[in-house]
Amino acid sequence: AGLSISATTGQVIPGASTASSTGTSYVVTYSIPATAACPAVSSTATVVLTQAPSAGTSGSLEICSNGTPANLFLSLNGSPHTGGAWKTASNVAHSATYDPAIDAPGAFTYTVEGGPGCASHSAQVQVTETPMPSASISYVNSPYCNLGSAGITRTGTPGGSYTSSAGLALNTASGTVNLAGSTPGAYNVTYTIPAD
Fold it and tell me: Is this model's pTM higher than 0.90 or not?
């Protein structure tokens, strides 16, 4: 701990020295020993070492368009320092929270300002929104005679599956009902879209 310095050359090794984000001061003394004719001489200088800021490394966030607000800081990689500031792709100040209900996706930049002698450091979180799936289904010609089959009309997101109660001969992939193979009665059919 402390200042790592070569006693012969006076070269300071910052990476091996203790530093703070606001700067740590050290006094370095250079001494010339006395000779037979002259007394010893010394000179001092102050060295300030500042801990380099780190915004971590860039990351990404994928969120559903109706998802709950997310903490952008948690999507940074590496070991980001706290206390930095966020800005949108339009260079507008932003909080650390991304809310899909009010925010637009894109690159959000996190910057940690540097202390004395250090430049600031930045990293980005690229936010991508996935549209919320939605769909509606209907059997437009219901009620049916229990002969043949009945196809479903679906609008919206594909890729879901169909379910109903026992007694209805339902194709769970297509939603088509085998009327001849079903027990007469009223049924509710549910179309479910899996989570992305």
Answer: no
